[in-house]
Amino acid sequence: ANRLPLAIEGFTQYGKDYPNSPNAGEAQWWIGMAYFNDKKWKEAIDAFDKVIRNYKGHEKAPDAMYQQGLTYQQMGQRPAATKIFQQLVKEYPGSTSAILAQQKLVPASR
């Protein structure tokens, strides 16, 4: 059985109950991942955007930007993905997600 809706519900409730918790940003990130894994691209974009906007200093913020870029790629929206990856590299240089994003920005040389 698909338990993603239940996970989303639980993480959403956690964010409502404990909005100032250090874990609230991570809960929001997991909501995005649940939507991503369920191929609900628009919902994933929105969930990751909440992490990016509401939890800017959180350790999951660069990860949310990276996942948002991957989501845009899944949707076939390369320009939007590129923009997110470039923003990620600029805002969070040296982060693991920025390194991964940089690799996405380099065209495959063959």
Labels describing this entry:
73% helix, mainly alpha, 110 residues, globular
Give a summary of the structure in a few sentences:
With 110 residues, the protein is mostly helical. 73% of the residues lie in helices and 0% in strands. The chain is globular.
Tell me the β content. under 5%
Terminal CA distance = 43 Å
Strand count, sense and barrel status of the largest sheet are: none
Helix % is over 70%
Task: Outline the secondary-structure elements.
Elements: H1 4-17, H2 24-37, H3 41-54, H4 61-74, H5 78-91, H6 96-105
Describe the protein's architecture and organization.
- The protein is mainly α and 110 residues long.
- 73% of the residues lie in helices and 0% in strands.
- It is built from six helices and no strands.
- Helix 1 (4-17) packs antiparallel against helix 2, helix 2 (24-37) packs antiparallel against helix 3 (41-54) and helix 4 packs antiparallel against helix 5.
- The chain is globular, with a radius of gyration of 14 Å.
- The termini are far apart.
